[in-house]
Specification:
alpha+beta
Length: 611
């Protein structure tokens, strides 16, 4: 009895040590909620991540009697301005000197530039580039005309969408940052929860991940300014560029990330004899706080920081990142441990068994947060196939399915390995009367499938690299909710020059002064809802005022129409703010022009509409 009593406390002590890391893991959501307000304070909740131009003054394609003093753009979320956010070109395609870009009195969701006092007659092109609240630059262009449109459409300047070298370097740095973060945090979670007997060999990959994370973060900071401005990497080290990045939220979060990595760098760089030894619980709590704060520097600067439900999105994105790191980074740590475990001694079965439980929890968190983030980023089922974001998400889901299949195989081999290592049943004591009973023989254990476990873990790691690559691509892709133009209700989205369709139809009523042309602009010139503008020119090419104009569209191949655009006179031009083209095909555009109470004519022209 004394021996039994002596053993029981030891068993209880062993169980308590085994479960000690769990409370620290469960503290992560609470710590996240505690740290969250400081990082999301002042963040707006606009309609969609990635800023979308919803209105402009002057409106795209309009003809004005007098020259405007400003060009004002209104976006679906707050935007950051660059030193070269606006480029305005005159009818000869020469760049105008404009004032500095700023925000209109309406708030941070607007951008405004002042124009010269005198503008010549003709069509002007405005190319713009701003940084959306989720740190990604967006750009576009629009036109307006003073007096009349230019007879020959002005070729728009090359759109500053990106610089190939800068974008490639920035994407590589982002991928390395994600990869090194997963390896660093996953290795820490593997050591804390799975508790392998030897951990010295894991210091090498952890140190390599830390160095890579510091270098990639520094590279992201240096490349931030040329990435925003679509400039060459050669401009990255300019003092003005570096100081400008320090004033932006993405740049400040990168600096915070570097500061948070400093304690980890010191801890790993110091020899084991010189490190500060903290109690286990205190060490786990400090590591949890540092881990959550580090993860927030990602979620507070990406898609989660803008759009609908910003606080919930940041919580979800941070938990998603932590679960990804625990699973995929822990997987790499397990592979590294397999490689450095002597074959005769082998790895205790409890290590892969604990990692299997850690992976199961991580997959559950990933599934729940992934469903929410997909709904938030897509906005509709149609965006799943019609947008780059949706198609990339489908590719990521396929890679995750392959990863889960490999993980299921690993879990099977881990279960067999655990059963094989289980102790044999205890010997049955001798009964009080009668001959002793034969001892129970242990059940034959299955062969330990260690080589199969290693192969499945290696397959998991390969699929994990693909998942990380697609995740990096998703973070730099316009979300489906923004790509499909989910602007506030009633606000038409300006699509700009590349998608507008301009049709010119001549007319002649046969009466004196009854000749001219009608120039009709559909923006965008594709299926969906857009705006219609029409301008009537006289025989001399000047702007002409007519008492009546009606525009209709018919699709003969589908026996659809006529659809009335319901354009109204806006004082020099005719427009309809919202008109829907339901199907692609070759439509017949019919314009009825009334030049007097008695004289009118109807003319037609074909119009090609695409998806």
């Amino acid at each position: 009895m004394l021996r039994d009593g002596d053993r029981r406390p030891a068993r209880r002590h062993t169980r308590s040590v085994t479960r000690r890391p769990l409370p620290a893991l469960l503290l992560l959501p609470a710590l996240l909620l505690g740290l969250l307000p400081g990082l999301v304070l002042g963040t707006a909740a606009p309609a969609s991540a990635h800023a979308v131009l919803r209105a402009s003054d002057p409106a795209d394609g309009t003809v004005l009697r007098t020259a405007p003093r400003h060009v004002t753009l209104a976006f679906t979320e707050s935007v950051g301005l660059l030193t070269d956010s606006f480029r305005v070109y005159d009818p000869r395609n020469h760049r105008l000197r404009t004032g500095p870009a700023g925000h209109a009195p309406g708030g941070s969701g607007t951008a405004r530039v002042s124009l010269p006092a005198r503008l010549a007659t003709g069509t002007y092109t405005v190319a713009w580039r701003v940084v959306s609240a989720d740190s990604h630059p967006v750009s576009g262009a629009l036109t307006f005309s003073v007096g009349r449109r230019t007879a020959a459409p002005v070729a728009p300047p090359p759109e500053r969408t990106k610089n190939g070298a800068t974008t490639a370097l920035h994407t590589i740095a982002r991928y390395l940052a994600y990869l090194s973060l997963a390896l660093l945090l996953g290795t820490a979670a593997f050591v804390a929860y799975c508790r392998p007997p030897q951990t010295a060999h894991l210091r090498v990959p952890a140190l390599a991940a830390l160095v890579t994370l510091v270098l990639s973060t520094a590279a992201l900071y240096v490349l931030r300014a040329p990435y925003e401005e679509a400039a060459s990497p050669a401009t990255a080290l300019r003092l003005s560029a570096l100081t400008h990045t320090a004033t932006t939220r993405p740049g400040q979060l990168l600096l915070v990330r570097l500061a948070l990595l400093l304690p980890a760098a010191v801890a790993l760089a110091l020899p084991g004899t010189r490190r500060v030894r903290l109690p286990r619980r205190a060490g786990l709590a400090a590591a949890a706080v540092l881990t959550v704060a580090l993860s927030l520097t990602w979620s507070a600067s990406d898609h989660a920081s803008a759009g609908i439900q910003v606080p919930a999105a940041i919580v979800s994105a941070t938990l998603h990142l932590l679960a990804m790191a625990a699973w995929l980074g822990g997987l790499a740590a397990l592979l590294w441990t397999f490689r450095h475990t002597p074959e005769p001694a082998g790895l205790p079965a409890t290590v892969p068994a604990r990692f299997s439980r850690l992976a199961a929890v991580s997959v559950t968190v990933l599934a729940l947060t992934g469903v929410y983030q997909s709904w938030r980023g897509l906005g509709s089922w149609q965006a799943l196939t019609d947008t780059t974001y949706g198609r990339t998400l489908l590719a990521k889901l396929a890679a995750v399915a392959a990863l889960l299949l490999a993980a299921a195989c690993s879990r099977t081999w881990t279960a067999r390995l655990t059963r094989a290592a289980a102790p044999a049943r205890a010997r049955v004591p001798e009964p009080a009367t009668g001959p002793p009973l034969p001892p129970d023989l242990p059940e034959p254990a299955p062969a330990v499938p260690l080589h199969l476990l290693r192969r499945s873990v290696l397959a998991e790691a390969a699929a994990a690299l693909l998942v990380l690559a697609l995740t990096t691509l998703l973070t730099s892709t316009v979300p489906g909710r923004a790509a499909t133009g989910s602007a506030p209700a009633g606000a038409p989205v300006t699509a700009g020059i590349p998608t507008a369709s301009v049709t010119t139809i001549p007319f002649d009523t046969g009466a004196p002064g009854g000749r001219g042309t009608v120039q009709i602009t559909l923006d965008p010139g594709r299926v969906g809802t857009g705006s219609v503008q029409a301008v009537v020119y006289g025989a001399d090419g000047g702007l002409s005022t007519v008492p009546g104009l009606r525009l209709t569209l018919t699709l003969p191949s589908r026996h659809l129409g006529p659809l009335d655009t319901r354009v109204t006179d806006r004082g020099g031009y005719w427009s309809a703010p919202a008109f829907t083209l339901p199907l692609p095909g070759t439509w017949t555009m019919k314009a009825t022009v009334r030049v007097s109470d008695l004289d009118q004519v109807t003319v037609t022209a074909p119009l090609r509409v695409t998806r």
